[in-house]
TrEMBL record:
GO terms for cellular component: cytosol. Mg(2+) binds at D225, D249, D253. Catalyzes the oxidation of 3-carboxy-2-hydroxy-4-methylpentanoate (3-isopropylmalate) to 3-carboxy-4-methyl-2-oxopentanoate. The product decarboxylates to 4-methyl-2 oxopentanoate. Pathway: Amino-acid biosynthesis; L-leucine biosynthesis; L-leucine from 3-methyl-2-oxobutanoate: step 3/4. Belongs to the isocitrate and isopropylmalate dehydrogenases family. LeuB type 1 subfamily. The record marks Y141, K192 as: Important for catalysis. It comes from Acinetobacter rudis CIP 110305. Its EC number is 1.1.1.85. This is 3-isopropylmalate dehydrogenase. The keyword NAD applies. The lineage of its organism: Bacteria, Pseudomonadati, Pseudomonadota, Gammaproteobacteria, Moraxellales. It is found in: Cytoplasm. PANTHER family: 3-ISOPROPYLMALATE DEHYDROGENASE (PTHR42979).
Amino acid sequence: MSKNILILAGDGIGPEIIAAAEQVLQRVNTKFGLELTWQHGLLGGAAIDAHGEPYPAVTASQAANADAILLGAVGGPKWDSIERSIRPERGLLKIRSELNLFANLRPALLYPQLADASSLKPEVVAGLDILIVRELTGGIYFGQPRGIRELENGEKQGYNTDVYSESEIKRIAKVAFELAGLRGSKVCSVDKANVLEVTELWKQTVTAMQQAEYPNIELSHMYVDNAAMQLVRAPKQFDVIVTGNLFGDILSDEAAMLTGSIGMLPSASLDENGKGMYEPCHGSAPDIAGQDVANPLATILSVAMMLRYSFREEAAAKAIEDAVGQVLDQGLRTADIMSEGMQRVGTVAMGAAVVAALGGE
Ligand code: IPM
Ligand code: MG
């Protein structure tokens, strides 16, 4: 049966990186006879311009009917001054939350060809392969009450609530344990249990689960400040990291930089049934939009994740990842991963090179 993908290019460099990824999708679709179809929709600033809101009903209904979603990036200075509740980022948070995409997988994998693009010494990062499992629909991002209020003395006060229920912790921990079982069998749960009750419950819940259900997975715990330090000190000690929404947001950017460029990292956001939204970890980079310099590889690798997790097409997923390895072997580099002796290419040429490396036509 044919499967349907919704493509949301978004803002800034979104349309360019998506165009490159779409070529790749087209090629694997034919080459592997996947029978995937896709349509386009609007999210973020592009949707605000067309419909006055970042996640309009028309996009919501397209998203509900899709088997998977491929997203570019949202946001930009053009929409920074509009009211907070309808900013582009709110569209992203809303689609995550409404579709229940609670499990955010952010792999930080170092391509050996890029070891010297990392700001850390090559020996510290060589062979790096970390998977960050970030809870994506709860915690302080969504907790109530939240807002900015005026105190009796007239002073303003901003406030948010960090909250996790046991069931939310269990379902994300399950994802982490299961995925760890398919790779290095180690999970590090990151918290701030020395200060925050919400993460004390997190720690207790994850510990109880490991004891009862995952005795073969090695579980460790780390405070988030230490984890931030360990990631740059000795990142290879980690296999799977599981953590809440805010800590995961921060640590995944940090882990991304270990690999040389955030422009290389894909992500998957999954619901309980494997329906997912796939997007690069980087943002919309408005400063370089429209210049054919953005790195499309994170988006292309997000297509690979989509084929793997939503469609169980491992061979096609692997073919894309191998093709990316090949173009790096050929010495092709976008500006963000450029180093001496390599050939600098733009977004379009990089996408075309991956398509060519896939072969099949
Ligand atoms: C991310 C981004 C988003 C987040 C923003 C754009 C709302 O930083 O996907 O990591 O904080 O989750
Ligand atoms: Mg982030």
